[in-house]
Fold this protein.
Amino acid sequence: MSQDMAAAGAWARVSVAYSLALKAVVIALAVAAGCAVLVMIGVTFVDVVLRLFRAPLKGAYDVVNIAGTLALACALPYTTAVKGHVAVELLFHKLGGRGRWVLDTTIRLLIIALFSAFTWQGWRYAGMLRVKGQVTPTLKVPEFWVAYPVAVACALVVLVTWHHLWNPGREMIKP
């Protein structure tokens, strides 16, 4: 009996440590998303001001494009963690408790399958970009390094959704 309790205690400690680590990574990506938005704002502002003097900022399009991609990708895990996605709950509220559970579980499993595919394909795409040596049009920055964080963000959405599946009714992070 004491071995079972020790195993349960060890599992609980591992689970708490895993949850805290996942939260830390999700929050770090949310901060990165915020920084990417600030970069977009700053580059756009500088470009507009410089265009008044007929000297546009070279590579502004490339930087804003990359920052926008990273902002969107890095915000996805946080938005999932706080359950901040837009949802139409018309059908959900008409179901009973068991129906809600079935629908919620089914949707979460579909999200896990979809974002697992996004992760796999994103990683493959990044590798393809690396092999081809594809670069941005103006600054000639290699594009493969942008696709890897997108794939990692999709993997984190999978992990956050698993967390929600095992802890129904609770946000992983309070907004």
